[in-house]
Design brief:
The chain has two domains: 212 residues, Rossmann fold, CATH 3.40.50; 139 residues, Response regulator (Rossmann fold, 3-Layer(aba) Sandwich), CATH 3.40.50.2300. It contains twelve helices and 14 strands. It starts with a helix and ends in a 9-residue tail after the last strand. The N terminus is likely disordered.
Amino acid sequence: MKKFVSVLLVMVLALSLSVLPVSAESKGVIKLGGLAPLTGNYAEYGKGFQIGWQMAIDEINAAGGANGYMLEIDVKDTQGDTVVSSTMATAFAEDDEIMAILGDFTSGACKANASIVDRYGIVQLSPTASAPDYAAMSPFCFSIMGRQDGEAPYLATYVLKKYLGVEKVAVIRVDSDWGLACFENFKAQADVEGLEVTEEKYKSDETDFSSIITKVKLSEPDVLVVMDQGAAVSAIFNAADAADWDVKHVALGPGTSEQVVSQLMTPDNIIVTSPFFFDPENEELTKWKEEFTSKAGFEPTVHPACAYDTMYLIKTAIENIGDGEVTRDAIRAGLQELEMQGVTGRIKFEPAGDIQRDYMICGVENGEWVVLKGFDYVNE
């Protein structure tokens, strides 16, 4: 993990030194603020944000910009910490040159920033915040990941009840706003499905999960569900394997993460829900994935794809302003009214400022993520 983070830091510095040329025919530069955990437990996802945003900016500027304006983003490392995120969000909001904020990664950080962006009247467009109450906190709060009152019930009904056919479920979740939203929405549907659920929580900075595994194992569940992202997911499942616990592993949160799989002792024993998958038969998606991988040094999950889409959403919102002045509120209005087909699918904001997603079941075969065929429950 230390080696991985070191590589990320080198790449962060390299990217931060790059300066985009402004076309002589452009109307000027529109500056954006980026919030992402470039270090810490969620570094893979924060780095994915940064790469995804820059890929989109490079394409947009090369094609003439957003209605003639060049785009530029200043990405700050929030370290996965809500206090740090709020401090940086405030700094962006107080800078009159910053027209919108993209990020942060966690729902907790985005919710902590909601009152800030509302007070300063600046958009906070998150690629990944999925707490059901986040977007409704302010007209300036937006997200495109989908909401946990959609994904968590899907996990209960279609992954656990219908696909795996289990009855007893053990949930180990991170003790955070996001973890609570996941569990509460999951538990409500699990009760409907007649699933027996036990729950254990842990702090986001915990690294030793052996005692939690020992405790959870005593309940003799049919499946172990982890609700978190990053290194904790693989660490918990590895702790279960180390305890010689032969139980099915299911995760809500990491998506089809190469980093999670690379650290698992038994990678073929994991199932995740996902709103998106890089279909190898789709040439356009495959090309995008290959370009991202070449720049990042690891394969993308849905998270950087969502980050990429948020930059194009900002572009489209600016274009929707037309000949009017590009202001913070004009960008907000432009986002609320738009509809766009992104890398991750159709994006049209609900009145609250988030979107609805469909979900699929993904697993690992021979070390590679695949969509589990025959279990497409999207249209049911």
